[in-house]
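Risk register update: the risk of archive-format incompatibility is retired. Evidence:
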Amino acid sequence: MRLLIGAGGTGGHVYPALAVAEVLHKSGDGHELTFIGTRGGGGFEKQLVDAYDVPFAAYGEVFAGPIVGVNPLRAISSMVKMGLGVLQAWQFMGRHKPQAILLTGGWANVPVALAARVRGIPMLVYLPDIEPGSTIRVLSRFAEKVATTVDASAPFFKPGQIVATGYPLRGAFMTATREEGQACFGLDPARKTLLITGGSRGARSINQAVEAILPDLLADGIQVIHITGQLDWDRSQAATADLPDATLYHPLAYSDQMHLAYAASDLAVARAGASTLGELTYYGLPGILVPYPYAWRYQRVNADYLAEHSAAVRLDDEQMADTLLPTIRRLMYDEGTSVQMKAAAKALGSAHGAQNIADLLLEMAQ
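Archived output:
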């Protein structure tokens, strides 16, 4: 089958797309896979695609930009880009003739969807979050089916349109062990491990809150994997330079070994992007989730979903100064709560999301 995969903007869109591509490639059925991302986005998507062990037959880029929630001048500029993007996507499809298309979100998907509709190519959209943002809502109008992480997304779409597939995890996530994670990060197997991460771009408010309580955490004997994000690395390093005993502190600007970080950890403090729904739950890892406050409400909805299922605790940015440390201590040392949350998280996880989405896409291509 000739299959086109489109994603752009953030790792939250690109990684699920790559997970599905990995399943299709490893099936051994000789599918021709092509990928289309954002032109002028700094090469972010292409870096991820090139680093991944999936041989795409071609990589394309289209112009695109945000229309909702921006000033009028930028919206006009984005509409012009979208027009060019439709032409670019049309030409790309003309060259590679995909039989079906998977779109996982990002502005670059909109011109792809428009071109595909005109060409009559069936589309599958994947929504990683609970609640769709404006882009996914637009894409769903052109899609035959919408794959979702959970059933709770059904009310946002037409009756019968969604298929709850689970979150598509990359293969490395399903083979990582706790022992491998401990070895990778130089951890003591006898100690509790706390993972701090703000996603692919980092989270300054989380970093600052953690830096303020690091001496207490280390004094408690907790070892900390702290992924600061590239943009906050220098500032965070300066802020933690005078720790009295930093042997238990493992800071990183970025890690491409997140599967091992999750596998090695007992608790995570993180934003509530879509990956938390699939990755934390697969490992049965309890989370303290801090939704990003300056964007669409989808992170709050994700955090609330996990909290309502007893798999996580939600804290907002303004609460962290007073409540982050006691919440970490409670979830780390109250064995009853910890065991209950791990079981609740594990019950929400799925190992089959990528395969389920791949099967749906192939069904549409026939």
